[in-house]
Amino acid sequence: MRIDKYLWCLRYFKTRNIATTACKKGHVKINDQVVKPSRDVYPTDIITVRKEQVNYSLKVLDIPPNRLGAKLVDIYRVDTTPKSEFEAQELLRYAKDYYRKKGTGRPTKKDRRDIEDIFNENDS
User: Fold this and answer.
1) Which whole-number Å values give the CA distances from 5 to 45, 91, 111, in the listed order?
2) Half-sphere exposure (Cβ direction) of 59: Cα atoms closer than 13 Å
3) Domain of 24: which CATH number?
4) pTM
5) What are the strands, taking DSSP E only, across the chain?
6) Cα radius of gyration (the chain)
7) Rounded Cα–Cα distance for residues 14 and 106 (Å)
């Protein structure tokens, strides 16, 4: 089975087109080699997938006949992603919280007009 189809079947990507694009960009490796989307997958291969700034690592146990339900995915692969990858994702989440939220900071044009209306009501 092709690597792009395999990753789509195991629900790592929502569509085969997205999986193919990830392969072309070099985000998918088999046994530490960047692969094309047409590369075949065999049992005992080690696949590394970079998705959303996390390097997922998985070992192929078997080839699925078609796209699987989420509960059946573990029959065909073993997830060997280290916990440190997910901890790095948590740090990124905290870093994003540092930036200001919507509605804070400089007032928008509408906010400025509302403020001016309040001051004008007090003057009259």
Assistant:
1) 15, 32, 50
2) 5
3) 3.10.290.10
4) 0.71
5) 28-30, 33-34, 46-51, 54-60, 77-79
6) 23
7) 38
Among 34, 1, 26, 28, residue whose Cα is nearest residue 12: 28
Q: How far is CA 89 from CA 27, 36, 99, 110, in A?
A: 17, 27, 16, 36
- For residue range 85-117, what is the model confidence (pLDDT) as tens digits? 878 777 777 766 666 566 677 778 888 898 888
**CA angle at 60 for the pair 9 and 30, rounded to the nearest 5°:** 95
Q: Alpha helix locations (H) across the chain?
A: 3-9, 16-24, 83-98, 109-123
User: Which residue range forms the structural domain that includes residue 93?
Assistant: 3-123
User: What six digits make up the tokens of 122?
Assistant: 């007090």
What's the total number of domains in the chain? 1
DSSP class of residue 101 equals: P
CA distance 26 to 10: 19
- The predicted pLDDT at position 43 comes to 93
